[in-house]
TrEMBL record:
Region (Disordered): 1-67
Entry-linked InterPro entries: Acyl_CoA_acyltransferase, IDM1_C, PHF12, TDBD, Zinc_finger_PHD-type_CS, Znf_FYVE_PHD, Znf_PHD, Znf_PHD-finger
PHD-type domain residues: 221-266
Localisation per UniProt entry: Nucleus
This protein's record includes keyword Hydrolase: no
Coiled-coil ranges from the UniProt annotation: none
PANTHER family: GNAT FAMILY ACETYLTRANSFERASE, PHD FINGER PROTEIN 12
Biased composition (Basic and acidic residues): 1-10
Name recorded for this polypeptide: PHD-type domain-containing protein
Compositional bias of kind Acidic residues: 23-32
Keyword Zinc attached: yes
Length: 529
């Protein structure tokens, strides 16, 4: 008996999707999570300055230079750098926090980690900060936190976090760990962790676990994985994915069970025996089918289907959080949300992890300004948000775990952000790229686009695909040299990948990547082939 196609009606009519890749789109959607009216901030009593704390330029009646006197008594018994200590500080800060309100998100003019901390209510605007050379050490600089940066007391100028450290005459690569709130002595690094642990941040990064309705007979998806439409679909017998036969170029319906391309070995197409999942391309494979000495190459935690995926993965990971400086004070970096450390990782890793997560939170605010909130019709997953936070799912088509976010910054300020995912040597996708309203029409998206293409080139990725709204298709073709996906061979090749799907009125464009020497920058990548 042959396979019976199942007619699946979509729950909602088409139109809940918002087409992407519109860097010039003018729509503005304020962050609904911060829509509550701000309470009037209560004037906070400033903390009496402890005797013995030396303030640069204050004359220095007491030059012992350490936290002594009241402050020391206050904090004695708290051993620095233990989780218990941090927990107590956070607890104190939480109580304190109730005395001031969050800043409404629409009032944010610059998107920085500081503005995120303020909008999350973890740091109050104009809060006094000190730069300490070591935990509980000397105060080397004084300033006030604003949404735009830190107002440095030594020069009364608005500076970045890194510049504030330089003005304090110190150099570490971890300024957030050395800048503390004068009132609570909680470091900005601790504040980053606290903001990340807030419930609304936690909500944004949750795994999209899609469960069928109770007593549901049919647990398959209602939308084709390739074209997002409903209708007569062939259902995978292992996972909930469904497809139009024509969308996967299937001419004859299979006899009996059928498994989709994410449920079989990518080499032999069967599902017998032990299958491993590649950490880079997310496809399953048999070790023996890989053709290379996969067992020798792979370690237990990260498995790869082959040498190419391993190389791509390692290069992407190595560059996470590494800032690439460009002209005019601009820089670009790619980030990815980092989970809890698996092992007792070193302090460096922890700093990078917290930095990545903070930048992802800021990138989400930028994306949320650029794109309307888009719900998946069937699963109700928030697509843009889940992509920025690289949320996984048991539904392949909304499994966004492999996404990275590339951002363009000027100083500490985030200007543009883009989502990129590499599926393997053949293909990368970029479903979203957006620039904040006040920076549009200044070529910012182009700078970021060039950096991304150049970086993908260095990874030797062959093709980049993007979805484009109809009215922007011309721009992508004329100015960025993309082309419509029309070639049947390419269409067929693309149908084997989990590319973010958009409704039919969004045009799929592609570009063959090649090294262009005139691009703005080349990332510091070695050539080790
Ligand atoms: Zn200064
Ligand atoms: Zn389809
Ligand atoms: Zn499947
Ligand atoms: Zn196989
Ligand atoms: Zn792979």
């Amino acid at each position: 008996m042959g396979y019976n196609l199942r007619d699946r009606k979509l729950l909602n009519s088409r139109g809940t999707y918002f087409g992407s890749s519109g860097s010039d789109d003018e729509s503005y959607d304020s962050d609904p999570d911060f829509g509550t009216p701000a309470r009037r901030p209560r004037t906070r009593r400033s903390m009496p300055r402890a005797a013995g704390i030396r303030i640069p330029g204050s004359g220095g009646e007491n030059s012992s230079g350490n936290l002594t006197g009241n402050m020391e008594r206050m904090w004695s018994g708290l051993h620095p750098r233990t989780s218990e200590h941090r927990r107590r500080l956070i607890e104190i800060n939480r109580r304190r926090k109730r005395t001031f309100s969050r800043v409404p998100d629409v009032a944010i003019t610059k998107r920085t980690v500081l503005s995120w901390l303020i909008s999350m209510g973890v740091v109050s605007e104009n809060e006094e900060v000190w730069y300490l050379d070591a935990p509980w050490g000397n105060i080397l600089g004084e300033g006030k936190v604003t949404r735009e940066g830190i107002v440095c007391m030594c020069c009364s100028r608005l500076v970045t976090v890194g510049e504030f450290e330089a003005h304090a005459g110190w150099k570490t690569n971890k300024p957030y760990q050395h800048i503390v709130l004068a009132e609570s002595l909680l470091s900005l690094f601790d504040c980053q962790i606290e903001a990340w642990e807030e419930k609304e941040e936690e909500e944004r990064r949750k795994f999209n676990h899609i469960q069928p309705a109770p007593k549901a007979v049919d647990t398959s998806d209602d939308a084709c994985m390739i074209c997002a439409d409903g209708g007569d679909l062939i259902c995978c017998d292992t996972c909930p994915s469904t497809f139009h036969p024509k969308c996967i170029f299937m001419e004859n319906l299979p006899q009996g069970d059928w498994l989709c391309f994410y449920c079989v070995c990518k080499y032999c197409g069967t599902a017998r025996g032990i299958l491993n999942k590649c950490s880079q391309c997310d496809k399953l494979y048999h070790c023996k089918c890989g053709g290379e000495k996969l067992d020798l190459m792979n370690r237990a935690s990260t498995l790869f289907c082959g040498k190419t995926c391993k190389k791509i993965y390692e290069r992407l990971e190595r560059m996470v959080g590494v800032r690439n400086d460009l002209e005019d004070g601009l820089s670009w970096t790619h980030f990815q949300r980092r989970g809890q450390p698996w092992t007792a990782s070193c302090e460096n890793d922890e700093y990078t992890r917290v930095e990545c997560n903070s930048k992802i939170a800021v990138a989400w605010q930028v994306m949320n300004e650029c794109f309307l909130s888009t719900m998946d019709r069937h699963t109700r997953a928030n697509i843009v948000q889940s992509i920025v936070y690289n949320c996984g799912s048991n539904f392949t088509r909304i499994n966004y775990s492999g996404f990275y976010t590339a951002v363009l910054e000027k100083g500490d300020e985030m200007i543009s952000a883009a989502s990129i995912r590499v599926h393997g040597k053949m293909l990368a996708e970029m479903p979203f790229i957006g620039t904040r309203g006040r920076y549009r029409r200044q070529g910012m998206a182009r700078v970021l686009q060039n950096c991304i293409e150049s970086f993908l080139c260095s990874l030797k990725i062959e093709t980049l695909v993007i979805p484009a709204m109809d009215q922007l298709t011309g721009m992508w073709i004329d100015k960025y040299f993309f082309a419509r996906v029309e070639d049947e061979n390419l269409k067929q090749a693309l149908s084997g990948y989990n590319v973010v799907m958009f409704p039919a009125d969004v045009v799929k464009l592609h570009k063959t990547l090649s090294m262009r020497p005139d691009l703005n920058q080349a990332p510091p990548e070695d050539n080790e082939d």
